[in-house]
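This protein record is not my work; I was only asked to verify it. Where you disagree with what is written, explain briefly why. This is what I was given:
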Amino acid sequence: MTTELEKLPVATEAAGDWKTICALQDIPVLGARVVHSAQGDIAVFRNAEDEVFALQDRCAHKAGPLSQGIVHGRQVTCPLHGWKFELASGEAVAPDVGCTRALDVTVADGQVRLKV
């Protein structure tokens, strides 16, 4: 499922601007939802503990779509070549080296919000 970031309503908080992406329940457990932005696609992940993370939707190895990867614990495995990335930081898990950009995301009142 994808969302156009530019068309979403903005919720402003003291720490910056946040955009409401979707309800937490709209992201499948152990899955992702893609948000299109002017800076490129963003993958918003939900793990089994209902934690939510946001990463640039590009593997640092071969630019594979991380949103199509396998979520396990607090990591995602790229569907192309099996590289694993930490969902919280975007850092590749050793022995792989590299990272993808992590973005600030939060859940408030059951709504997933992305900091812009």
In short: The chain has one domain: 2-115.
